[in-house]
Design goal:
- With about 110 residues, the protein is an all-alpha fold.
- The chain has a domain of about 70 residues.
- It is built from three helices and no strands.
- InterPro entries: FliE (IPR001624).
- It is found in: Bacterial flagellum basal body.
- This is Flagellar hook-basal body complex protein FliE.
- It holds the Pfam family FliE.
- Belongs to the FliE family.
């Protein structure tokens, strides 16, 4: 089974457009990191991705704190959505790390 990434990416971008822009300070911009990877340093891309995940976690924590303090501009749904986004991004990062470690071990076990 072969999966073509272009229709999948287009569908994800169309779904992104359906998300209400009134989700507070959270904007779905994960696809921005994938747009221009030609000639980019892998370490720099990985660092940006980890920084993005960290930013999502900080935003989620900030919204939860503001909700706990009684800020009326933050809704429970905004907080839950932010928490889920940060959780999904973290899980994806862990999976990428696992694949990189697995690939490294496989390369190191190859005979020279």
């Amino acid at each position: 089974m072969q999966i073509n990434a272009n229709p999948l990416l287009q569908e994800m971008q169309s779904l992104r457009g359906e998300i209400a822009p009134s989700v507070g300070s959270i904007r779905p911009n994960l696809t921005q990191q994938v747009n221009n990877t030609a000639g980019s340093d892998f370490g720099q891309l990985l660092s940006q991705a980890v920084g993005h995940v960290s930013g999502l976690q900080q935003t989620s924590s900030n919204l939860a704190t503001r909700l706990d303090m009684g800020d009326t501009t933050v809704t429970l749904s905004d907080t839950v959505i932010a928490r889920e986004k940060s959780g999904v991004a973290f899980e994806a990062t862990v999976q990428v790390r696992n694949k990189l470690v697995e690939a490294y071990k496989e390369i190191m076990s190859m005979p020279v």
